[in-house]
Amino acid sequence: MRRWLAALLLTLAAPVAAADAPLLTSHLRIHDPFVVAEQGSRTYWLFSKNDPAVTGDSRIGIMAYASSDLAHWQKPKLVFALPKDSWANDGGWAPEVHRWKGRYYLFATFHNDKAAIPASGKRPNYRRATLLAVSDRVDGPYQLIHKGEPITGPDAMTLDGSLYVDPAGKPWMVYAHEWLQMGVGTMEALPLTDDLSPAGKPQLLFRANEADWVIGQKQPEGDMGYVTDGPELYRTKTGTLLMLWSSWGKGGYVQAQARSKSGTLAGPWEQLGPLIMQDSGHGMLFHAFDGKLMLVLHRPFKRAIAKFYEMRDAGDRLEVVREAVELDGEAYPTHGCPMGVSDARC
């Protein structure tokens, strides 16, 4: 009788939840997803570049969806709008929101292809960098800090800045230095002060072509481009320092991981290979309200949606437990994988 009553109550409650959050995960066209699990309100916030077709706001900026279960989402709202007098005029890529010193900080990449910077290779280069904004609320509104100027150098073409706080409590921004400028993209780390201003020179962590799974992309200029994309740092239960990152591999976009042998940003960094292939990438980790470690990424690269995976902290690396198909209804085909390779890897 109790089971029947519980099932009835769940059925009656479901339409209310769906009415409040009518969008399914499979409806959301998202690149570079980032999730904040806000404990106070038991709300998941999913951040992405603003899409005027769904927010109804044509401004360049960042939008956020809200959900209580990662499967049903409210219509997104604009949480940050790029000021009209900014040096940038496009972008909104790779938004991340981090809690720091009691406030929420937004990191997002913007650019202006008319603002030329010195080129070291065969392609013209222009201003592209991560901008920082702050709010007292996770859902904004966010306001630019540092007068809207990047904290990386004015002649550096960079993207995908991510906040990392080291064991001493010192903040860093880890970011990708563009292959467009470097030829071979790099991962770099910039030490910061408590107000998230530069505290020194950037440090090279590794180059894209140090990973044997990365495939260079032939460019119209005749050279090869090796991409670094989407860094995020994670400290495991045993103290191992890992980095999630993406590039192009066999069959498309790849979500991979690297490990610091020293346990610090200084490395050296060893490449552990792909976590998830299937044209998937730019992932980030969060803990669900039930305590499970989750990964969200986008797949496929074009017309992507957010894909969720349950993960395992194995101490010296991350492992995929399963694709959470109950959240979006898509089960990736398992046929065609090599013997001994899981469907998450092939």
Automatic annotation (TrEMBL):
<dbReference type="Pfam" id="PF04616">
    <property type="entry name" value="Glyco_hydro_43"/>
</dbReference>
<keyword id="KW-0378">Hydrolase</keyword>
<protein>
    <recommendedName>
        <fullName>Glycoside hydrolase</fullName>
    </recommendedName>
</protein>
<dbReference type="InterPro" id="IPR023296">
    <property type="entry name" value="Glyco_hydro_beta-prop_sf"/>
</dbReference>
<dbReference type="GO" id="GO:0004553">
    <property type="term" value="F:hydrolase activity, hydrolyzing O-glycosyl compounds"/>
</dbReference>
<dbReference type="InterPro" id="IPR006710">
    <property type="entry name" value="Glyco_hydro_43"/>
</dbReference>
<comment type="pathway">
    <text>Glycan metabolism; L-arabinan degradation.</text>
</comment>
<dbReference type="InterPro" id="IPR050727">
    <property type="entry name" value="GH43_arabinanases"/>
</dbReference>
<feature type="signal peptide">
    <location>
        <begin position="1"/>
        <end position="18"/>
    </location>
</feature>
<keyword id="KW-0326">Glycosidase</keyword>
<feature type="site" description="Important for catalytic activity, responsible for pKa modulation of the active site Glu and correct orientation of both the proton donor and substrate">
    <location>
        <position position="160"/>
    </location>
</feature>
<dbReference type="GO" id="GO:0005975">
    <property type="term" value="P:carbohydrate metabolic process"/>
</dbReference>
<keyword id="KW-0732">Signal</keyword>
<comment type="similarity">
    <text>Belongs to the glycosyl hydrolase 43 family.</text>
</comment>
